[in-house]
Amino acid sequence: MCGLSRDKRETGITANIKRLINMKLKIFILFEFLTFNIICGQTNNQEMMTTINFGGVNCYLVQTDTSFILIDNGFSVKRDLLVKRLEDLGCNPGNLRLIILTHGDHDHTGNSAFLRNKYGAKIAMHADDSVIVEKGDMKWNRKDKPDKISLTFRAILLMSHIFKPSEFERFKPDIYLDENFDLSYYNFDAKVIHIPGHSKGSIGILTGDGSLFCGDFLYNLFGKPDTDFCDNIDDFNASVEKLKRYKINTFYPGHGKSFTMEQFTIFRNRD
């Protein structure tokens, strides 16, 4: 009888823990849902670069002397809003020259095929993530279980199952980017840095003035720049060491606000 009572108590404790976790997940889901809608379509002008935020995903429009370059392009469900923003900024069919994808996940690549057809732009990304967009499979070339995933990201993933986006439009990239790919051909003073960790084909775009567009390699959702989803922690740590060799002033992440190298270093040294 005593053993049975203990089992019942343990079952009750387990149920309470599950309820607590579910409650926290619901809070995170609600927070993310509200945040997505509040900041949807927000723009931030920085010289010749404009940050366009759609549903919590950052896209970056770079204006060169002769044309535009778009870094990532958000969910397909935000397409009409993206087109409107591009038009407002003077980006129209014919002058969007290049679409750079920091990695293959659908929240960063969802409008790629559409934009190529409408604007005539080329799509460029790293080959190690190309099958993700060719097959529409974000699990491709990743571990069955990521080395690190935050509670916030778990909530976002759960929400993505609740609020299912439209079907992903698969495509094949036009250009494959790798380490030190020089973007000056496109009148963009920048080069590519291969920074696996979030995915095998994650890349950063480092400009001549020390700005790094890092995609989902790093997040900054709550003022704490870190990785919220890391497929391979060894790759991530090696990429962090690689970045230390460059003069980086400001990170522009795929999610959250920009932050300095100093802020990232301070936060990482606390771990």
Describe the structure in brief.
This protein is α/β, with parallel strands linked by helices. Helix 1 (2-38) packs across helix 6 (151-162).
Question: Which second-level CATH architecture of the largest domain applies?
Answer: 4-Layer Sandwich
Largest sheet: 7 strands, mixed
Which percent range fits the helix content?
A: 25-40%
- Averaged pLDDT: 83
Oligomeric nature of the chains: single chain
Number of strands: 14
Main sheet: strand order:
1-2-3-4-5-6-8
| Tally of separate domains | 2
- Tell me the structural class: alpha/beta
Rg (CA only):
20 Å
CATH class of the largest domain: Alpha Beta
Order of helices and strands: HEEEEHEHHEHEHEEEEEHEEH
How many helical stretches?
A: 8
Low-confidence stretches: 20-43
Distance between the termini: 47 Å
CATH H-level homologous superfamily name of the largest domain: Ribonuclease Z/Hydroxyacylglutathione hydrolase-like
Description:
Helix 1 (2-38) packs across helix 6. Helices cover 36% and strands 21% of the residues. It folds into two domains: 1-38; 40-270, 4-Layer Sandwich (Metallo-beta-lactamase, Chain A). The relative contact order is 0.12. The radius of gyration is 20 Å and the shape is globular. With 271 residues, it is α/β, with parallel strands linked by helices. It has helices at residues 2-38, 79-88, 106-109, 112-119, 130-135, 151-162, 233-243, 261-270, and strands spanning 42-46, 49-54, 57-63, 68-71, 96-100, 122-125, 148-149, 175-176, 190-194, 203-207, 211-215, 229-230, 250-253, 259-260. A seven-stranded mixed sheet has the order 1-2-3-4-5-6-8. A five-stranded mixed sheet has the order 9-10-11-13-14. It has a two-stranded antiparallel ribbon with strand order 7-12. It has eight helices and 14 strands.
